[in-house]
Amino acid sequence: MAYEYFLEPFEVREGNRTGETFWRRRPGTEAWQFLSFWDWEWHDLAATAPQHGSPHAESLRPVSPEHAAELENDRSRWSLYWAVYRGEPKPGDQPVNVVRRKVSPDKSQDQIFGRDNQGQDDGYLRLLLPWPTDPPHLEPVDAHESERIIKERRSISGATSW
């Protein structure tokens, strides 16, 4: 049996940004499933993340099955990125790193591209940067700019797939 697919936007406090949750259900049911941006599998909402609650009908945008297949394969789309600067950037300053936020009904986490070239959790970020009296400055960037920064800082390509 076929599914109906939907996108649901949500607001992110930092930087006035918008993320999206990817939902599906069988026609005529309220048995929602979401695409986890951590294991890239569809999960039953009631069994996996009941604390999240069902999507809000008024904010859902329908997606065709063909477009849904494309969205399922576009992993960089589901992350939000920020360039990290040590303090307010001045002309010519380069970012010191990139932070990625992945938000999914089953798990939400901020990550930084770490020394071992893996996404580290925000606890690691707090160790690297002086908090809270001298917080870093975060500038919203897209996946392409994040990729460029990481390649420039670490000489690694394909980093936004982590």
Outline:
This protein has 162 residues and is α+β, with helices and mostly antiparallel strands.
Features:
alpha+beta, single chain, 2 domains, 162 residues, 10 strands
Describe, in plain words, how this protein is organized in 3D:
The chain is of the alpha+beta class and 162 residues long. It has two domains: 4-75, no CATH class; 78-161, no CATH class. It has helices at residues 45-48, 65-72, 122-128, 143-154; strands spanning 4-12, 17-25, 33-35, 42-44, 61-63, 79-85, 97-104, 107-113, 119-121, 137-141. A five-stranded antiparallel β-sheet has the order 4-3-2-1-5. Strands 9-8-7-6-10 form a five-stranded antiparallel β-sheet. The longest helix has 12 residues, at 143-154. The chain is elongated, with a radius of gyration of 18 Å.
Question: Topology of this structure?
Answer:
Layout: E1 4-12, E2 17-25, E3 33-35, E4 42-44, H1 45-48, E5 61-63, H2 65-72, E6 79-85, E7 97-104, E8 107-113, E9 119-121, H3 122-128, E10 137-141, H4 143-154
Antiparallel strand pairs: 1-2, 1-5, 2-3, 3-4, 6-7, 6-10, 7-8, 8-9
Beta-strand percent range: 35-45%
Number of spatially distinct domains: 2
Topology pattern, helix = H, strand = E: EEEEHEHEEEEHEH
| Helical stretch tally | 4
SS content category: alpha+beta
Largest sheet: 5 strands, antiparallel
Mean pLDDT: 82
